[in-house]
Design goal:
Shape: globular
Structural class: alpha+beta
Order of helices and strands: EHEEEHEHHHEEHEHHHHEEHEE
Strand content: 15-25%
Radius of gyration: 19 Å
Oligomer: single chain
Largest sheet: 8 strands, mixed
């Protein structure tokens, strides 16, 4: 391998259509997701080593070592890192990762980590990959190599950055950049309130339950997924049209439909936060990612300070929102 290589990749906010990128729905009927990359970053670094493979996660304070990639634990806390070095093997090295997003936040941090790992490891192998190749490899890393259930929006959002409409008809993906008026994008950023509930969640079990219900022909689940796909198309129009009230309404409409997928989608903490934010003048909001904990985000009123204070009074942590118009970067 060449010398040390590094990569950073942003996480995302899924404005509408999340869940419709998850198979088998995305394969049978096709899904649409509207997403925006946010400047909270996953980082990966690959450094040459003397012997064997050493994996380090700064976030969880865990390190593991093995003589070669084949001997790494396939089910431990560093499952993504070990899967990455099996997928893209390099000579003796240390692979170290960190993420600025809280664990289990619903912001697609594992997808961002997938993308950063693929980019850093492929660079270490002196391989130049295009954006679609990075996104596809990152999806393969998580779903196949690591065996983690989920969709594909996170990896594409982290790879491309900016505002995107993603259409999935597995195995194909159509990536369209959304062109927002700069003043509208600035106002959207200023009024966006990203609230971490402090209750992290693992989405794999929820995803499995929902998609099993879909496969069994559950009409409620099927109808909710189809409705969220339609909401995503309308969200793309609202955002490119600069319509803030419509964006708020569609966020809340998506959240109502999302809760129809599974009874555990909205925790008591999330329900209280949603109620308080509405009372504080928020135009709308939803859970980030699959729900059942993690973050919620809201389009606040013209003066979002009081709404932010109300969220903090409930014990929520307000995370910064800065649009990341550039995706993954080797550095």
């Amino acid at each position: 391998m060449i010398g040390a290589t590094r990569a950073t990749a942003p996480v995302r906010l899924d404005f509408a259509g999340g869940w419709t990128d998850v198979p088998p729905f995305s394969a049978r009927e096709g899904g649409t997701v509207v997403t925006a990359a946010v400047g909270l970053y996953a980082r990966a670094e690959v450094r040459p080593g003397k012997a064997g493979i050493r994996l380090v996660s700064r976030d969880i304070g865990h390190t593991t070592e093995a003589a070669d990639a084949s001997m790494l634990d396939r089910n431990g806390p560093l499952v993504l890192l070990s899967a990455a070095v099996r997928l893209l093997p390099v000579d003796s090295c240390t692979v170290e990762t960190a993420s600025e997003a809280p664990a289990g936040s619903g912001l697609g941090s594992s997808g961002a980590l997938d993308v950063a790992l693929v980019t850093a490891l492929s660079t270490a192998r002196a391989e130049a990959l295009g954006a679609s190749e990075i996104a596809d490899l990152a999806c393969r890393l998580e779903s196949q190599e690591a065996g983690i259930a989920g969709g594909r929006q996170d990896q594409f959002a982290s790879t491309y950055g900016g505002f995107l409409r993603l259409r999935f008809k597995d195995p194909c993906a159509e990536v369209s950049s959304l062109s927002l008026d700069s003043a509208f994008a600035t106002e959207l950023e200023r009024r966006m309130l990203l609230c971490y509930t402090g209750e992290s969640r693992f989405s794999g079990g929820t995803i499995t339950r929902v998609m099993q219900a879909y496969e069994q022909g559950d009409r409620g689940v099927t109808g909710a997924l189809q409705a969220m796909r339609d909401i995503a198309e309308r969200m793309a129009e609202a955002m490119t049209g600069g319509d803030l009230p419509a964006v708020g309404r569609l966020l809340s409409e998506n959240w109502r439909r999302q809760q129809e997928l599974d009874s555990a989608m909205c925790t008591p903490e999330m329900s209280r936060l949603d109620s308080v934010m509405r009372s504080s003048g928020a135009l709308g909001g939803k859970a980030a990612g699959s729900g059942a904990g993690g973050c919620m985000f809201f389009l606040g009123p013209d003066n979002p300070g009081a709404a932010a204070d109300a969220a903090r009074a409930l014990g929520m942590r307000i995370l910064p929102v800065r649009w990341a118009m550039e995706g993954v970067r080797p550095c």
